[in-house]
Amino acid sequence: MSSEYVTTKHPGGQTETLLVESKPADLPEPE
Amino acid sequence: MAQTFGPCGQIIVSGAGLAPPTSLTANFGVWSGGLPAFSELAKFGCTQSAGVSSATLTEVVNIAGSGVLSFAAFHTSTATTFNNGKFKIVIDGITVLNETTINASDQDGAACAVGLYASSGANSSGISQEAINFSTSLVISIASDGVGGSKLSYKRYLT
């Protein structure tokens, strides 16, 4: 499982960067 | 210990033993199977990082700003040959924990530096490692053994 960094900016001005598991890419819509 | 006077005549004392943040090395403990369901910590508001398999320290959380770290635990992996996992906490630019020898005997357990430690053994016991403030930054890094997927679970309040 691959991972990626996600950064959240909070209302208090803090920024939080967390290593999370990557979500699988969306499957294409069926024709 | 240095002693100076402030602008209103107050005594200002400073010394290595008083300067925050305090080292968490003495707070470090290990569950030995006492925390079998690491993922269950999410039910208590903990955030869990993605798994890290690298043997090199990898930053898993970085907060810029102020807050309180109330829980932090390291999950080894399910590997049976796990050796030398690493768990590092840096608060306001100062390393307060730098463990480098978390081993396979801690499999499916966790190493706790902040927050509640509880034993589920016959002689059950518990101790709450006190929460710790951070003023400008909190950075936590972990490393696995190059094979297993080690994870961090943590809980923080922003202030």
Q: Can you describe this structure?
A:
The complex is a heterodimer of chains A (31) and B (159). Chain A has no helices and two strands. Chain A is mostly beta strands. In chain A, strands 1-2 form a two-stranded antiparallel sheet. Helix content of chain B is 0%, strand content 47%. Chain B has no helices and 13 strands. The A-B interface holds A 1, 3-4, 10, 12-22 and B 47, 49-52, 58-67, 149, 158-159.
Fold blueprint:
The complex is a heterodimer of chains A (31) and B (159).
Chain A (H helix, E strand, L loop, with lengths): L2 E7 L5 E7 L10
Antiparallel strand pairs in A: 1-2
Chain B lengths: L1 E4 L5 E4 L14 E2 L16 E2 L9 E7 L2 E9 L9 E7 L2 E9 L7 E9 L7 E4 L2 E3 L2 E7 L7 E8 L1
Antiparallel strand pairs in B: 1-2, 3-9, 4-13, 5-12, 6-9, 6-11, 6-13, 7-8, 7-12, 9-10
Brief write-up:
The complex is a heterodimer of chains A (31) and B (159). Chain A has strands at 3-9, 15-21. With 31 residues, chain A is an all-beta fold.
**Strand-residue proportion of chain B:** over 45%
Q: Based on DSSP secondary structure assignment, what is the total number of beta strands of chain B?
A: 13
Q: Output mean pLDDT of chain A.
A: 86
Helix content of chain A: under 10%
Q: What profile does the largest beta sheet of chain A have?
A: 2 strands, antiparallel
